[in-house]
Amino acid sequence: MATATKKAPAKKAVAKAATKPAAKNGVHENGTNGAHKNGNGAASSSSLGKGIPAKKGKGSFSEVAGKYCVRDIKMADEGRMLIQWAESRMPVLMHIREKYKKAQPFKGLRLAGSLHVTKETAVLVETFAALGADVSWSGCNPLSTHDAVAAALAKGGISIFAWYGNHEDFYWCIERTIDLKPHLTLDDGCDLINTVHEKYPEFAKRDVIGGTEETTTGVHRLRARAAAGKLYYPVYAVNDAITKWDFDNVYGTGQSTIDGILRATSVMLAGKTFVVAGNGHCGSGVAKRAVGLGANVVVTEVVATSALKAVLEGQRVMTMDEAAKVGDIFCTATGVKDIIRKKHFESMKEGAIVCNTGHYDAEINLKELASITKSKRTIRPNCEEYTLKNGKKIFVLAEGRLVNLAAAEGHPSEVMDMSFSNQLMCHIKLAEAHKAGKKLPKEVIDIPKEQDEFIAETKLSTMGMKMDKLTKEQLAYINDYNAGT
Ligand code: ADE
Predict the structure, then answer these.
(1) I need a labelling partner for 347 at 20 to 30 A (CA). Which of 22, 314, 391, 457 fits?
(2) Tens digits of per-residue pLDDT, 49-81?
(3) Does some domain include residue 35?
């Protein structure tokens, strides 16, 4: 993916003189100067040494140059309660936080992250800070930042650049986190890794210890980068952990996608024909939950084994050309572009609802929809009514961006607990290797089995569940190649 880094006018000071009195936490609202000094005393110069370019976003912001830019710092108390709510439902992550508090594995290290700013992410961010890291954060999607949570993080002293509706300054925010000169990067969708590699290759090769990637789409990008010989530091594929993709991708996406669709539409799912494009981990999770609510699920696929799985789950498989004619609700979960395009919109039923739960907004071709549209209005939050030139109405949710985060709150805390425990443990591994003077290969690294086992066992024990253990005899039996009938 091309790194569409903004070319903003150079050297225009971002922050005007403070017009408001100092906020409670000692920083000014709407811009005071003062470059961010990180915990190690390294001045956080912008763009690795150049001046901070102006941002383009409209509306008002709470901003301290070099330190944070959020929508409204006054939302911090609301955000703090949401973070506390998430903490109480993320026992594995909180357990690891406690376990490593004394050791301070990240002391002296700087970490930049680009991942949806939700209450669950805030628990992860504050865990890194509690374990000694100097952290700087941005969102990884224009519509997924929870502004109250961003405000709470800023007020709590985290360097954060994120707000809901950030279409214009998405890469500006990522660049501000790179200003920290991170040793570690944490991504969801590879936009931070791509920016560091494409804009600052020497810095990536020389100074970055390693990183992690959260999502399926991001890991695809990462493997493509590695295959091209263009990956300059080791990156753990967090997405591919069993305790991530068999849970977050399936149950997390399943529940949060339905949640987003319902919040944006409040329609009844029972009796509807619900078309899911893509029966991978994410799509199959959505299909399962739609079935549970009484929908007739149709799956479209390009991989025969995935299509077959849907059939044996009792779902129908069709091409999108056929599905477009019968669907009431469409949800894309493929990671591929142009899944729903002009010819599909043209054959859809009156009132069809279309949304996406994949990482990028490329799956529904809204340009082609616009080309056959007469008029458009927002009929309810996150729901746009397109009236086509032929008079038919089609409804698009969350501008074709991931509906679960844009229209709802993303996956529940309980499942993010495991995903983010993987994130944390991988970064602890990177930090420990660095401190031991050990060089990891500049590759995409898989998650060790012991990490999955530890996270799953800890999760089970926090749920009060106990497992059996194999007896010595059972162990000998399964390893005996002569045992038979
Ligand atoms: N991705 C999906 N759900 C999420 C959540 N609640 N927080 C962060 N990233 C997510």
Answers:
(1) 314
(2) 567 888 888 889 999 999 999 999 999 999 999
(3) yes
pLDDT of residue 54: 83
In terms of domains, do 186 and 217 share one? yes
CA 1 to ligand 1 centroid distance, Å: 22
The pLDDT score that the predictor gives to residue 50 is 60
Q: Which atom of ligand 1 is nearest to the CA of 413?
A: 6
**CATH code of the domain in which 79 resides:** 3.40.50.1480
The set of protein residues with a Cβ atom below 6 angstroms from ligand 1 is 115-116, 118, 120-121, 252, 256, 405, 410-411, 416
Q: How many CB atoms lie within 10 A of CB 470?
A: 10
Q: How far apart, in whole angstroms, are the C-alpha atoms of residue 192 and residue 211?
A: 10
Ligand 1 centroid distance, CA of 360 (Å)? 14
Do 189 and 316 fall into the same domain? no
Q: pLDDT tens digits, residue range 84-119?
A: 999 999 999 999 999 999 999 999 999 999 999 999
Question: What spacing in Å lies between the alpha carbon of 77 and ligand 1's midpoint?
Answer: 21
Conformational region of residue 464, where left means phi above 0, alpha means psi within -120 to 50, and beta covers everything else: left
CA of 116 to the centre of ligand 1 (A): 6
Nearest CA to ligand 1 atom 9: 116
In a domain, 475, yes or no: no
Token representation of residue 236: 């753990």
Give the range among 33-37, 54-58, 355-359 with minimum mean pLDDT.
33-37
pLDDT of residue 53: 85
- Name the pLDDT band for 2 (thresholds 50, 70, 90): very low
Residue 461 CA to ligand 1 center (angstroms) comes to: 23
Instruction: Provide the domain limits for residue 325.
Output: 254-358+362-400
In this structure, are strands 352-356 and 393-397 parallel, antiparallel, or unpaired?
parallel
The residue among 81, 108, 13 whose CA lies nearest residue 53 is: 13
pLDDT (tens digit per residue) in 177-234: 999 999 999 999 999 999 999 999 999 999 999 999 999 999 999 999 999 999 999 9
User: What's the maximum distance between 2 C-alpha atoms anywhere in the chain?
Assistant: 84
* Of 82, 125, 404, 405, best ligand 1 pocket probe by most atoms within 8 Å of the beta carbon: 405
Q: What is the pLDDT of residues 219-262, one digit of tens each?
A: 999 999 999 999 999 999 999 999 999 999 999 999 999 999 99
Helix 147-155 × helix 119-130 angle, to 10°: 20
Average pLDDT of the residues in 354-363: 96
Number of folded domains that form the chain? 2
CATH of the domain at 392: 3.40.50.720
Distance 177 CA to ligand 1 centre (A): 20
- 68-70 sheet: strands from edge to edge: 62-64, 68-70, 159-161, 134-138, 110-114, 184-187, 210-213, 235-237, 444-445
Residues 30 and 95 in one domain: yes
